[in-house]
TrEMBL record:
Domain of life of the organism encoding this protein: Bacteria
Protein name, entry field: Immunity protein
Domain Imm-5-like: start-end pairs: 29-155
Gene source species: Lactiplantibacillus modestisalitolerans
Length: 168
């Protein structure tokens, strides 16, 4: 763990693997907001399979994801991302299942990571809530999801370090 690191508690009630979550949180401190947004979208894209069928191909969903991706490369402003989040809120309100709503909530927080970097960890926690809903009382599934999230984050951090070494 990094000096001064204090694990935070999830903002939602979930059955979790706190050990892997604290490792994830420690690693997030080493990345930029754009990098965390990239990681959050990796998680959110996995959650898309659980979005209600009638919303899965909604243009507003794709535009919201695009807004975050374009923000990562400085082609849109945070204001434009916030506008996409407003449309995402309407989609969440129209979800017909708790699983679909949880999946949209995960996507929402991933997109919101452009507004505040801690929202990337919220997307990560929401993905765990989604696992809790789709595979109730299954700590192995939760641990597997958290490990996958950690692996994605570690790979992203490693790729960034390799890129920096090539620049020197």
């Amino acid at each position: 763990m990094t000096e001064g690191f204090r694990p935070s508690h999830p903002k939602i009630s979930i059955d979790d693997d706190p050990g892997i979550r604290s490792q994830i949180e420690a690693l997030t401190g080493a990345l930029s907001q754009q990098q965390l947004a990239k990681w959050a979208l990796i998680i959110a894209k996995k959650a898309l399979q659980y979005v209600d069928d009638q919303q899965k191909y909604d243009r507003q969903l794709r535009l919201a994801i695009d807004a975050n991706e374009l923000w990562q490369v400085n082609l849109v402003s945070v204001y434009q991302v916030r506008q996409a989040l407003t449309r995402m809120s309407a989609m969440k309100a129209n979800s017909t299942s708790s699983i679909g709503a949880a999946a949209l909530e995960c996507v929402f927080w991933a997109i919101a990571s452009a507004d505040a970097d801690e929202n990337a960890l919220r997307a990560s926690d929401q993905a765990i809530k989604l696992v809790n809903l789709t595979k109730p009382n299954n700590p192995a599934a939760v641990a597997a999801e958290r490990q996958w999230q950690y692996d994605q984050l570690a790979e992203l951090a490693e790729n960034i370090q390799q890129g920096l070494r090539h620049m020197l």
